[in-house]
């Protein structure tokens, strides 16, 4: 929105009065007066004589009435047409404040107080700024200025009531919106994917509605927002505003109760006037999965899952290290113990046992880091090129990097499968650990992680 000016080509009726009074004011200090005008809407601004013209004319008449005090209007016009008084983001007001700070103005004249601001806080801050630069504020229709105590008192009273009135209007609007929401009416805003708005009503857009249903069904199948988002982005799926259906947008879709046929106001749902896209059964399936965080879901199941390093871990003497556990005070403690130490009861074994959880975390972290090294990426790419010459190094890099963000969302059984796929063996030494990766497993994992186009799941 740009600042609008009063109608052009119309000479001020007070221009001659300013000129005639020039000689008589020679001995009086010149007081530079800036007229500020504002209108909230652009309606009528293209007329020959508009609201801004009317405000300026009244202000100039007042300046003429004070010519004995040396008052004279500056040549610059400060007119904000089509700008709300509830904000200070107005071009003409910004110019006015700049001229105040640079000492170009002595008096600011407005038609009414609310032309400067409708916010009490903003208004008082502006008046404080004016006073700090020795500038007087005058409202011509309310017959006072900030130079005297009575004017300042009256000013505060009027601004208080103006703010009170504005808040009342805001409350009425909020109450109306709340009442409409409770009746299930659509009150505007961003139209959700799957709907369109006609005659201020939310109607199902059947093609997009089927896309939404497919997203919900696919999430139930994958049980992973990250994997689903990767599919949606790879398929260039977008909402009605052109935004890619990335993980953030996906979560908003999965949590939007509008799809259940409900209207929501301040966290409370009401039966809506619009038709539902998602049935209650599918909604409940999705939200049963969403209620459990990926990390917690993996953590809860890990204790009941076979150790992920089983069959891969070997001690310094080459003997396998097997998983075992014990319970103490109702708590489960898992270990990997050397077969040599267990069967032969040897006390000189350099590595008799290690805590399972800590070792598994170290191994997984090491594997994550190895998958991001240039050597592994290039090696995997070359192996995959033998299967498909079209695959690029960047695609392989993206797939392997994607493993890192997917790991915490996987169930423990799937984590164990991937570790077994990637790791050929782990050799424990007294002071170090050597991990040997499985080259074939790397190429297989990279193929799995390639983002496949989103396919609509069937019920």
Summed up, what is this model?
The protein is 45% helix and 16% strand.
Low-confidence stretches: none
Q: Report the span from N to C terminus.
A: 50 Å
Amount of beta strand: 15-25%
Count up the helices. Answer: 16
**What average pLDDT do the residues reach?**
78
CATH topology of the largest domain: Rossmann fold
**Oligomer status:** single chain
Question: What is the CATH top level name of the largest domain?
Answer: Alpha Beta
Name given to the CATH homologous superfamily of the largest domain: Resolvase, N-terminal catalytic domain
Shape: elongated
Rg, please?
A: 37 Å
Total DSSP E strands = 16
**How many structural domains in the coordinates?**
3
CATH architect. name of the largest domain: 3-Layer(aba) Sandwich
- SS-based class: alpha/beta
Largest sheet: 6 strands, mixed
Relative helix content: 40-55%
What does this entry look like structurally?
This protein has 459 residues and is α/β, with parallel strands linked by helices. It folds into three domains: 149 residues, Rossmann fold; 97 residues, Hect, E3 ligase catalytic domain fold; 137 residues, no CATH class. Strands 1, 2, 3, 4, 5 and 6 form a six-stranded mixed beta sheet that branches. A three-stranded mixed beta sheet has the order 11-15-16. A three-stranded antiparallel beta sheet has the order 12-13-14. Strand 12 and strand 13 form a beta hairpin. The model has no long low-confidence stretch (mean pLDDT 78).
């Amino acid at each position: 929105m740009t600042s609008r000016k009063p109608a052009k080509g119309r000479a001020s009726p007070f221009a001659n009065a300013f000129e005639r009074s020039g000689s008589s004011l020679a001995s009086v200090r010149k007081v530079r007066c800036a007229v500020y005008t504002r209108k909230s809407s652009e309606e009528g601004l293209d007329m020959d004589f508009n609201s801004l013209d009317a405000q300026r004319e009244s202000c100039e008449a007042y300046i003429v009435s004070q010519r004995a005090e040396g008052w004279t209007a500056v040549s610059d016009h400060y007119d904000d047409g089509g700008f709300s008084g509830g904000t200070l983001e107005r071009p003409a007001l910004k110019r006015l404040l700049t001229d105040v700070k640079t000492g170009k103005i002595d008096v600011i004249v407005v038609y009414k107080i609310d032309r400067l601001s409708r916010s009490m806080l903003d208004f008082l801050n502006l008046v404080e700024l004016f006073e700090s630069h020795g500038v007087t504020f005058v409202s011509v229709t309310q017959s006072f200025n900030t130079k005297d105590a009575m004017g300042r008192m009256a000013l505060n009273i009027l601004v208080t009531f103006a703010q009170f009135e504005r808040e009342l209007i805001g409350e009425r609007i909020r109450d109306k919106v709340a009442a409409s929401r409770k009746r299930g009416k659509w009150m505007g805003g961003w139209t959700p994917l799957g709907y369109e708005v006609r005659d201020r009503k939310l109607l199902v857009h059947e093609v997009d509605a089927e896309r939404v249903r497919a997203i919900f069904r696919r999430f139930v199948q994958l049980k992973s927002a990250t994997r689903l988002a990767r599919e949606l982005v790879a398929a260039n799926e977008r909402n009605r505003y052109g935004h890619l259906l990335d993980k953030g947008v996906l979560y908003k879709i999965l949590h939007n109760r509008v799809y259940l046929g409900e209207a929501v106001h301040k966290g409370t749902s009401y039966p809506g006037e619009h038709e539902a896209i998602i049935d209650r059964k599918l909604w409940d399936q999705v939200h049963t999965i969403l209620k459990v965080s990926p990390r917690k879901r993996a953590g809860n199941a890990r204790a009941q899952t076979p150790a992920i390093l089983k069959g891969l871990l070997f001690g310094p003497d080459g003997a396998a290290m097997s998983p075992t556990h014990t319970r103490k005070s109702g708590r489960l403690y898992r270990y990997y113990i050397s077969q040599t130490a267990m069967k032969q009861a040897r006390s000189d074994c350099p590595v008799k046992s290690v805590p399972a959880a800590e070792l598994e975390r170290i191994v997984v972290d090491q594997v994550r880091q190895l998958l991001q090294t240039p050597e592994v990426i290039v090696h995997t790419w070359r192996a995959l090129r033998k299967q498909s010459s079209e695959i690029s190094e960047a695609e392989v890099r993206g797939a392997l990097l994607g493993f890192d963000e997917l790991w915490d969302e996987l169930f423990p059984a799937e984590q164990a499968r991937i570790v077994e796929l990637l790791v050929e063996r782990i050799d424990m030494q007294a002071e170090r650990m050597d991990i040997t990766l499985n080259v074939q497993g790397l190429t297989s994992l990279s193929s799995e992680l390639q983002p496949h186009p989103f396919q609509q799941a069937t019920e």
